[in-house]
Write the structure tokens for this entry.
Amino acid sequence: MAWYPPESYHLTLHFIGEVTQRPVMEDIHHALAAIHTPHPHLRLTAPGLFESETHYGPDTLWIGLATDPALTQLQHRIRATLNRLLPATARRGRRFVPHVTLGQSQRTDPDQRQRWLATTLPASEGETVGHFTLFQSLRGADGPCYEPLEHYPLP
């Protein structure tokens, strides 16, 4: 298994893709700064696994987050806001599965896969968050690296 470093852990609310034009980046910043929703409550639920789309690719190991109406509302507002700003070819409409990716496993054997999915997480009250962050994703030698560009407080 290849575990990602904890500093790379994040919850993706919407993937933007590559933006190279400064005016578009400024429009994105102003639009995200105008989003107001209740503060979401994040609570870890259970481990999950996205299986590779190819037989030989890595499986993605993740921890799910409990459904929270404020989190769903925030994600919907971000998606709607960004889809208005970005060209149709860059719009993303995939189903939102709140999770934090922890690593990858190359050619996971069935027993190891089952042990991961059967892992019991310690009880937790979770945490209410008061902001969301725009990150730039960079490829590092040890996996993805995320650089925060801007934090957006939720009033």
The chain has one domain: 2-153. Residues 69-85 form the longest helix (17 residues).
